[in-house]
Amino acid sequence: MARKKEYIEEEVIEKAMELFWRNGYEATSVRMLEKEMGINQFSIYSSFGNKKGVFIKSLACYKGKAKLELINKLQKSSDGINAIKQYFYDFIKFSRESRLNKGCLITNTVNELGEKADQEIMTEIVNFATNVKHLFIEKLELNDKKTSQVIKEQANYLMVSLQGLSVASKMFDQEQLDDFIENTFKNL
Amino acid sequence: MARKKEYIEEEVIEKAMELFWRNGYEATSVRMLEKEMGINQFSIYSSFGNKKGVFIKSLACYKGKAKLELINKLQKSSDGINAIKQYFYDFIKFSRESRLNKGCLITNTVNELGEKADQEIMTEIVNFATNVKHLFIEKLELNDKKTSQVIKEQANYLMVSLQGLSVASKMFDQEQLDDFIENTFKNL
DNA sequence: ATTAAAACTAAGCAATTGCTTAGTTATTGT
DNA sequence: ACAATAACTAAGCAATTGCTTAGTTTTAAT
């Protein structure tokens, strides 16, 4: 005894996610979301509560997309460090839109909101970062010569490096990014 | 035959710079600037034209501060790569406010505005980045075993790494940052 | 067919945005 | 002392922000 939704939440969230990815959280207005998602503000608020709600779902959507296009490949690989290196190269393609890159939505959000980020948002971010780090550790462990201490250090190294790649891809050209990746993996 | 300004432009710009550094460009409103700079909006607009004008001057102020507290030390050093490594550690202190870090204002701005950044702002950013890179090259050249090709590659590597440090310092703890820096300079 | 519930449209809310302007006060050369 | 100029105060501008609400339309169980 009720009307059906004329949109699929997962579908409109993907549009929202793209917008947040391109513009950041604050610079994306509810009017912009309305246009991009193709639904009225009422529907946005009724489905997701508020702007933060849309963003939280967008982060989940981003995770899903990253998993499909990026993380699953790394997870399946048994190529150790080379697989992580390939992940770095894949990330650049993943985040590319036309000539420049949008970076990583998670990194963008950390950089924009920093410590004043909402608790819910911060939880999502830390959760995502932890997953990637554990995956790096898993691949580093394929080299049985490394102690757990070295693996921990290298995982931290790789996590920060990846964030550098995210920001740098917004202003550096492919050659500079290649130089970075090649040097990053020189003696791991 | 005219009244004197009741503020010194360099002084109020430093306050503005701190605010932009903490909050980013968009999230800093003219009302916030008014309060922090301690002058009326009229004075802001009469001295700096518009919000972008305040920001441009803030970027210049940031450069000056970075030069004094960070870059001059590196410039004076003849310790080659170790001097650059020290620069990385110095940067963390430089950008620290209370427990967490504000990152680098230049990196923050690239990450926030990306390709849609105003031309004037972009010029300032590229100019600053170029200076730092040339300084890295200068220090790398102190090791006469390196070819110019290797130096170029390592300079690109260091530039991206530094941006990683800027973002990561906003959410990672000191131990993780130390792991990053130590591993970064293992490759050089 | 009636009715209740949910999803829609679109107008409107107070607050905030970057910026301007009208009017007052202080400083200086004459 | 006076007039000219610039810096001040504070009110106000249209546009935009996140969000709500009043009223209409669609759906489905009775």
What does this structure look like?
Two copies of one chain form a homodimer. Chain A is mainly alpha-helical and 188 residues long. Chain A has a single domain, classed as Tetracycline Repressor, domain 2. Helices cover 72% and strands 2% of the residues of chain A. The first copy, chain A, is built from nine helices and two strands. The first copy, chain A, has helices at 9-23, 30-37, 41-48, 51-76, 81-95, 105-113, 119-140, 148-168, 174-184, and strands at 96-97, 100-101. Chain A has a two-stranded antiparallel sheet with strand order 1-2. In chain A, strand 1 (96-97) and strand 2 form a beta hairpin. The first copy, chain A, is elongated. The N and C termini of chain A lie far apart (62 Å). At the A-B interface, helix 6, helix 7, helix 8 and helix 9 of A face helix 6, helix 7, helix 8 and helix 9 of B. The structure holds a DNA duplex (30 and 30 nucleotides).
